[in-house]
Amino acid sequence: MTESSLNRTGANILVKALQANGINNVYGIVGIPVTDLARLMELRGMKYFGFRREDSAVDAAAAAGFLTKKPGVALTVSAPGFLNGLTALAQATKNCFPLIMISGSSERHIIDLSQGDYEGLDQYNAAKPFCKKAYRVDRAQDVGLAVARAVRTAVSGRPGGVYLDLPADTITQLNNAPDQVDMGIFTPVDPAPLQEPSDAAVQRAVDLIKSAKRPLMIIGKGAAYDRAEKQLQELVAATDIPFLPMSMAKGVIPDDSKHSAAAARSLSLKNADVVILVGARLNWMLSYGDAPEFNPDAKFIQLDIDATQFDSSQKIDAPLQGDIQSILNKLVPAVKATNYKVDSAWLDAIAADTAKNDKKFATRIANGKVKPEFGYYAAIDPIKEYFEAHPDTYLVSEGANTLDIGRDMIGMQLPRHRLDTGTWGVMGVGMGYAIAAAIETGKPVVALEGDSAFGFDGMEIETICRYKLPITVVILNNGGIYNGIGQVVPNQLGPTTLDPKGRYDLLAKAFGGDNYFVENYQQMKDTFAKAVESGKPNIINAQLDPAMGKESGHIGNLNPKLDLAPLEAAEKEKEND
Length: 577
What we know:
Elements (H helix, E strand, L loop, with lengths): L2 H5 L2 H11 L4 E4 L6 H9 L3 E4 L3 H15 L3 E5 L3 H16 L3 E7 L2 H5 L10 H5 L5 E4 L6 H13 L5 E7 H5 L26 H13 L3 E5 L1 H5 L3 H11 L3 E3 L19 H7 L2 E5 L20 E6 L13 E4 L2 H14 L6 H27 L5 H14 L4 E5 L2 H9 L8 E2 L10 H12 L3 E6 H7 L2 H7 L4 E7 L27 H6 L3 E5 L2 H13 L4 E6 L21 H12 L1
Parallel strand pairs: 1-2, 1-3, 3-4, 4-6, 5-6, 7-8, 7-9, 9-10, 10-11, 12-13, 12-14, 14-15, 15-17, 16-17
């Protein structure tokens, strides 16, 4: 194939169309039918990052979308590879991360007649329920249009995942369309247009805020994604409205702000009379806004790009539809013009509850440092101290107790510096998110992992080492899912049991990274900063006591309980006989 004809292939048009839309990084796994497509990407100046599993690659692309506000792009092979990536595609859509997942696929005429193609699957229709939109490109002349539509769909309105189906024939097919300008490649005009709320909607919200005696602002990752930190910091400084950050919104307003109600979460939610939701949804993470977690008489103001989110769980008294920045550009000056200030009694109540809970928390941390059993508080405290001194470090976290305790302990001072399991609470995102954070930002990344969560995508350690990324993976190994002491039948390992003495750190050594093994607080303190500041890929295996950790972490109420006591007692009797 000559250079001239190569330029007219569907593959080349795809590459050029992505570049025309400012997309240069691609995360994926190659194989039939996309191997040469990935080679072409590199030859044309794109950066291709090869993974070990498709779900991790698609997770990385999704995280790239959140961090850059442009669609991240993932590339997978057909059928099994596509299916491996489908969970991550669905997760990106639920998390509102802009993503384009491109998969090679079988020819449609073979699929439609069920003729048994290699890795044959109707991927286009299979993807539809799990993303904002799916497109299939059957002609090379349509590739430029498909990319433009995918970009616009991914970033417009509520961002999310888009699936782009690329049959094998389209990859090598030549675009011979007469009189087509630039092979049909173009950049969509204003792909995510700004949307302002009406003046009446803003005034309705202002009136409700003015009436509030005990307001509370809940900041969600939508506000972080839309870069709303300056407006929100200005609003809080002017009004003294206390705020509660959701996990990936930590740092939009620094966690050490005196206006943070994070340590007084229960009191704030139960007593707030006006709740302002900024890029946050009343889903399971906020108990759907229901009592007793929330004040049953609370009024709600919600800022969201998608009107279908209003009234989803509670009546929204002042809905503000639009992108977060455009809403705040109108709302903040309007609120400031009223000279509204929060009643000092409300702030004093939150401050008192915060001080009480902080004291309890400090005691747990202090006790953890001296306990003979090495646990979560002692292991995470050096990480907490490091982030206080080095706020421009990125944190990725997953696990049950690891995630929950780490979220409470590690403060964030900058926006979009924390990524975690998100709206679905999906484990297995850690390595993909960490890789994307390192690549897209060039900054050091800490992946704080439970031993169970790490197991989902642990082979991406090889990817981290292969690309020599500045990622420190901290594995808190208590030998189990939740903990390692769940054995109830003498001759069987319990369902939650993993290897409590597993040397996960040796995985890093196997692929050329650094490895560390720690068994107490002092060793962790002596090791952590050194590991991060080396700039090298590394794993710290923190060997916790297997008894550390509670069932399901902070959300044990979601795990249905059965009365197993009679059966467990019977098993103990058998053992004693």
